[in-house]
Amino acid sequence: MDAMATRTLIDFRTDPTCYKHWRIEFDGPVAHLIMDVDPNGGLVPGYELKLNSYDLGVDIELHDAVQRLRFEHPEVGAVVLRSGKDNVFCAGANIRMLGQSSHGHKVNFCKFTNETRLSIEDATENSGQTYLCAVSGPAAGGGYELALTASHIMLIDDRKSSVSLPELPLLAVLPGTGGLTRMTDKRRVRRDLADVFCTTEEGVRGKRAVAWRLVDEVIPPSAWAETVAKRAREAAARSDRPRDAKGIALTSLERRIDGGSIRYLLVSVDCDSEKRRAVITVHGPTEPVPDSVDDAVAQGAEIWPLAMARALDDAILHLRLNEPELGLWVFRTEGDPAAVLAYDAFLETHATHWLIRETTHFIKRVLKRIDVTSRSVVALIEPGSCFAGTLAELAFAADRSAIFAGEASGDNKPPATLTLGAANFGTYPMGNGLTRLQTRFLGEPQSLAKAQTAIGAPLDAEAANDMGLVTFAYDATDWADEIRIMLEERASFSPDSLTGMEANLRFPGPETMETRIFGRLTAWQNWIFQRPNAVSATGALQRYGTGQQADFDRNRV
Amino acid sequence: MPDGMTIDYDGLIPNNVDLATDQRVRKALETWHPGYIDWWKDMGPEGFQQSLVYLRTAIGVDPKGWAKFDYVKMPEYKWGILLAPAAEGRTIPFGKHKGEPAWQDVPGEYRAMLRRLIVVQGDTEPASVEQQRHLGATAPSLYDMRNLFQVNVEEGRHLWAMVYLLHKYFGADGREEAEELLQRRSGNQDTPRMLGAFNEATPDWLSFFMFTYFTDRDGKMQLEALAQSGFDPLSRTCRFMLTEEAHHMFVGDSGVQRVVERTVQAMQQAGITDPTDIASVRALGVIDLPTIQKKMNLHFSLTLDLFGNEISTNAANAFNAGIKGRYREDKLDDDHALIDATYPVLRCIDGQIVEQQAPALSALNMRLRDDYVKDCESGVGRWNRVIEKAGFGFRLKLPHVAFNRAIGEFAAIHADTEGNLLDGTAWNERKGAFLPDDADAAYISSLMVPVHETGKFASWIAPPRVGIDNKPGDFEYVQIVQ
Ligand SMILES: [Fe+2]
Ligand SMILES: [Fe+2]
């Protein structure tokens, strides 16, 4: 029954030549991202992906496509999301897949889906690559949620096509991957109409869909092709992306897995299943910064910030899905802090260049993945490490950090330091719209101001500790024992309560649509995913498709 | 108080549902009425609206109340709301509510499902009128013209039947849906009818006969399944509609048979022994048997699509809820719940057609389609006996269910009429051998000349054995007023 538990390794690395479910068609500055799900192409056996319904495999391709459109196609200013099937746009997440998946798989699947959807919005907002959505055929549940990521939703008015969020009446779950929140926060649909919409299985079509702000326009079939093309051209014309630039190739990411060791060029992961921990070491740059931005383009995917981010991104996704029992991630870095800062400076100097812009936004998204990962994260700042600027964010993303004070005997590595850079003060906002330092110092603005004055200066253990930038500083006498005890203790707690506590503590301060999606919405969804009304043998997810209705426990909790 | 058996003809709308005292529904229907008449004038039979047509109108819902024939101008036809008499103490015959008293009102939790089923059924009724609206101009006889118009006015009445349910039980949403039933147009790009086969053209009379034989028979199967419904007003409505539907299928069944009769007769007279010698047969001004077969292939396969996906959650839900039953549910001997039962389903797996056992609840569309295919065989047998009696070896045959499908398991593949899989190239090459092509259409169209003289028939069709209402052969079924 739990097919996902019999682990087949889930690989997030793909490229268009391997796609089963999507294709991209280019028309000058407009790309058409076409969903045409292969019913027999599910990630694991046991379900058919009918009616453009999706599983994690479909989303992995979507994520890859979105990423490649940004890096490989600077000439593309507008992307039209559409269906390659005649009679349906997208029926949402596959119900049988959800029915047979473990709770953990469902949660991780939804999290990745949320991240991909936010990356679509990020492209529109920050990359000059505007997503539009052309809905022909019903867009139900996750199908409409996908449409909601676009900045402009067009619905064909053929009296058959509709948008709907039927999760509640049909499946006794929520449109939990952003559906509810995007409806209210992004499209500002009136709450009572949203209530009606979300309890009406068949959804809404035609003029009412516009009147309720569920879509931006309805278009008769006779004008459909022409209008969609026109809107896409208009959006592309507003883009600041360089029409004549050539993209870089996101070459296949090299990775070797050998037992508990995972090696990328710039990231190594050492898994210790007994201690239930993964040590993730990020290597700083060894090559000097490029002479010019053209040189950076020529280096393509090999340039340090991008190559490092790609490896780290894959490592995070891999560990989340394939190593659920490693509940503790330890972040380490190795390298020269000055070299990291030199790359930061390069990124800052050329911030408006399309490729550099893509790179920093990508690093931002990778860091955000850490923020929403349900693992305890500890950063260890040791001699020879390079927690500077961009890489210092790893320490600030961690639930706690420790820095090695003073000299280590019998070791000629440079002493441990933490170095702040401009990158720590605005380049990589969290989902709450604040930087990690702003979030850290929500209650002590003076500490934030003080930190700002220290930009560029390598801070030793004492200074970093005094300034509140690390949790602990231990010298050679205590380090080994303290760290061992801290990690062992952490790994002994209930994984569920840790997940809950960490998710609460990581996001103080203001709510945004993004934090609401991850925090409030997924928390409710994950609760519902545990409840018998949804997942017991007589619950709605199991009963779906059998013709039998679910038996509900009628108590409101 | 009406007893549900006699029809109240006093108001604007004849009915046996006591509209006189149901202010709300009467007002809704009277508001809808002008739009319906406009639709009929716009989209109903083209021309002939002032002609006097010898039509039957129901004056009661018992078997005797039926056969009331008279001349009437179509726009003045008495479209009414007629339900089969209520069965005392009726209970829900299947699903999880089996044995509970049948619903006289819509249960809230099934409202959306019921409305959808009624709207889809309702949409087919005006659609076929629209599809057939040009046929009056090329009627092969006054007898056939009358039959066409009889079918048309009854499809109009079926629309009324569905609109009554929408108005009576579905509030503002129902009124909105009823309005939209008048707005959609068969084959229109922007406002098409809901189901594929109802957006196809009915270009000639052979198509009309095939349509009434094959596609109206889908209507029959759907009505049979809905007649079992635990929602009693729907059941009663459908039971009465079925009596009308029988006539439509008679028109198709006998129509095709008369075409076949005429063809074999002409071949015999001309001494043609090879029915596939198309050129020689066509030289006689009749429709060759291979072309009749192609028309069958087309209409049968288009109609199969109306049954939807073989495996269907909606069908399962509707059955379990007690809303839509199986064909002749009341005659079936099982638990009428089907929770653990299975049913064999033809599926397309790795490009092969294989039979698999599927949960019976999910396979209800497949089951209804199987019942339909069986039901289709009877007429084909009759047509073949005409050919056989005339001494020809040719036989008409229903194509394989995988042939020419756009919905369901076989939508993704191509198959010939025997169910052998074809690749895209082979399909494109051989399509013309299975389905009518432009040349076939042009030939049939060349035969479509009107015959208005009483008792006379076009060259390609034989006269019927008996007249409608037992009228003699030269009866003037339509008094044409241009
Ligand atoms: Fe009908
Ligand atoms: Fe009919």
Task: Looking at this protein, list some descriptive labels.
heterodimer, A: 557 residues, alpha/beta, eight-stranded mixed beta sheet, six-stranded mixed beta sheet, 41% helix, disordered N terminus, B: 482 residues, mainly alpha, three-stranded antiparallel beta sheet, 46% helix, binds fe (ii) ion, Ferritin-like_SF (chain B), EC 1.14.13.208 (chain B), oxidoreductase (chain B)
Q: How does this structure look, described?
A:
- Chain B: It is an enzyme of class 1 (oxidoreductase).
- Chain B: This is Benzoyl-CoA 2,3-epoxidase subunit BoxB.
- Chain B: InterPro entries: Aromatic_CoA_ox/epox, Benzoyl_CoA_Oase_BoxB, Ferritin-like_SF, RNR-like.
- Chain B: Its EC number is 1.14.13.208.
- The complex is a heterodimer of chains A (557) and B (482).
- By secondary structure, chain A is α/β, with parallel strands linked by helices.
- The model of chain A is unreliable at 1-6 (pLDDT under 50).
- Chain B has helices at residues 23-43, 111-131, 142-169, 171-183, 205-227, 232-270, 278-282, 289-304, 313-320, 364-389, 424-434, 438-447; strands at 52-57, 68-73, 342-349, 352-359, 414-415, 421-422, 478-479.
- In chain B, 46% of the residues lie in helices and 7% in strands.
- Chain B is built from twelve helices and seven strands.
- In chain B, helix 6 packs parallel to helix 10.
- At the A-B interface, loops of A face helix 9 of B.
- Bound molecules: fe (ii) ion (2 copies).
- One fe (ii) ion binds next to helix 3 of chain B.
- One fe (ii) ion (FE2) is lined by residues 125, 155, 158, 219, 245 of chain B.
